[in-house]
Every structure is written in structure tokens, then in C-alpha cells.
Amino acid sequence: MTIMSKAERTRNFIIEKTAPIFNRKGFAGTSLFDMTEATGLTKGSIYGNFTNKDEVALEVFKFNVSKMQAMFDAEINSKTTAKGKLLAYADFYDKSSMAIFPNGGCPIMNTAIEADDTHAELKESSLRALLMWKSSLEKIVVDGISNGEFRNSTNPEEAALGILAMIEGGVMISKLSGKINYMKSIMTTLRYYIESL
Fold it and tell me: Which segments constitute the HTH tetR-type domain (predicted)?
């Protein structure tokens, strides 16, 4: 068991308490007041543990993505087939509301949209997270081709991109419209797509 120093515990506390705010309000919308309010700490305590707001935001993004990944892993790791693992994504988004995500929705999409033209480091972090997700989907598809679940002609990269596009597009449409049934409809389409591989 690793014992954390007081400074590490404080950093983790700041990350955990500000994570929902950054994910909901974004980098530009999250103020120092929001951070002190959420943590109960002073400005000096926050900036005594982080160089600046950028560093907090980057750590918070990693935290939110790891939280989302842990939810996916719990669903996927319970499946024994490649098709089952891909369908687990559709089931996950179908049965859950957007509220179960790190407060505010998908951190990859939220951060990518906000940081696109405004924050190079956050944009790079969101791109890395998206590419890792794409890579994990590709691996599942490759495994499915190898064990005969998917056609040999299936292109793993195209399949992964299609799955990502339906998931992230569904999240955006559902969140923007406030209509969960839109997400359910898109997840039905995703199931058909996975079955067609």
C-alpha cells in the first residue's frame, strides 16, 4: 500500500472536488472562486499545490477520463466475446443517463470542443484520450476478426471511428436537446452497425 504525502492528498482533493466544475463549466468558465468554493481552500492553498489553473485543468481532465474509463472497463470486462464488448458500449449508453458521467457529460467531447482553438495543451490531452479510446475499439475489432466473430473484410479503424462517431454524436445530440430517447435511438443504430461487422 502506497502512503501519500500531505501534499499529494491535497492535490488529489483539489482535483476530485474541482473535476465536476471543470467538466461542466469548462476551462474558461471555471473561476478561482469556483475552485475555492468547491474545496474550501484558499487561493494560496490551491496555487501552493499547482503552478496555475492550466495545471489544475490538465490534471482534472485526466481524472475525469480515468473515471469514465473505469465505468467502461466495468462493463466491457464482464463480456467474453469481441461482439459482446462492443455491444456493451451501446448497452451502457442506452441504460444510463448522462448524469452518471463525471458531472457534465463526456469529458473528452467537452474538452475537445472548448479547447479546439483556445487551449493547445487541453486539446492535445483530449486528442490523446480519443486516440486511446479508438485504439482500444480497434483492438476489440481485430480480436473479433481473428476469432471469426466479424468478417475478414471489416476495417478495424473504420469500425472504431464509426462507433466513436455514433457514441459522441449521440451524447452531443442528447445533451443539447435534453432528450434521452435520442440517445436510445442512436444506440439502436449502433447495435445494428456492430451486428453488421
Answer: 8-68
* 167-170-151 Cα angle (round to 5): 40
Query: Could you write out the DSSP letters of every residue in 76-120?
Result: HTT--SHHHHHHHHHHHHHHS-GGGSSTTS-HHHHHHHHHTTT-H
pLDDT tens sequence across 21-51: 999 999 999 999 999 999 999 999 999 999 9
Average pLDDT, the chain: 90
Evaluate whether 65 touches 107 at the Cβ level (below 8 Å).
Answer: yes
Nearest CA to 167 out of 70, 79, 72 is that of 72
Which residue, among 11, 24, 5, 21, has the nearest Cα to 51 in the 3D structure?
11
Residues 6+ apart with CB under 8 A from 69: none
Look at 171 and 147; give whichever has higher pLDDT: 147
End-to-end CA distance of the chain: 44
DSSP state of 40: -
Report the percent of the chain where pLDDT is more than 90.
67
CATH (residue range 61-196): 1.10.357.10
The residue type at 132: M
